Amino acid sequence: MRSAQHVDTGACERSDEALARAFTLLGKRWTGVVLGSLRPGPAGFRELARAIGGVSDSVLSDRLVELTESGLVSRTVDPGPPVAVSYALTEHGEALIPALTHLAEWAQSHLPPPSDSG
Question: Is the peptide bond before 40 cis (omega within 30 degrees of 0)?
């Protein structure tokens, strides 16, 4: 009969908690794509919508609000005329780019390509 061994799961639980918090925001549809689209530099709403393709204006707006409130994206208003709003990655947002790049590379290597029948 085996004796029960104590396994310290404290570090794992903390890691799982942090991962759950990250994916609460990053796991939402289009969030990672929005962040990746801002990698080259600041962009306006229409520019982002064109770059992403397939995202509705309301969902894009919601994601930009969430990312701004989370401190990953900054929103700058140029009073114009005409008034112009641009979005850019903050330092915290920039810090995510290596992880997003790794995810994209993993997907390229390990996930089947998207079907054309979508």
Answer: no
d(C-alpha 99, C-alpha 27), whole Å? 13
Q: What does the pLDDT look like over 72-115, one tens digit per residue?
A: 999 999 998 899 999 999 999 999 999 999 999 999 999 998 87
Tokens of 3: 């004796």
Distance of CA 29 to the CA centre of its chain: 9
Q: What digits encode the pLDDT tens for the residues 3-18?
A: 455 555 566 667 789 8
CATH number for region 11-108: 1.10.10.10
Q: Where are the domains of the chain?
A: 11-108
Q: What is the value of pTM for the model shown?
A: 0.80
Distance of alpha carbon 33 from alpha carbon 29, whole angstroms: 8
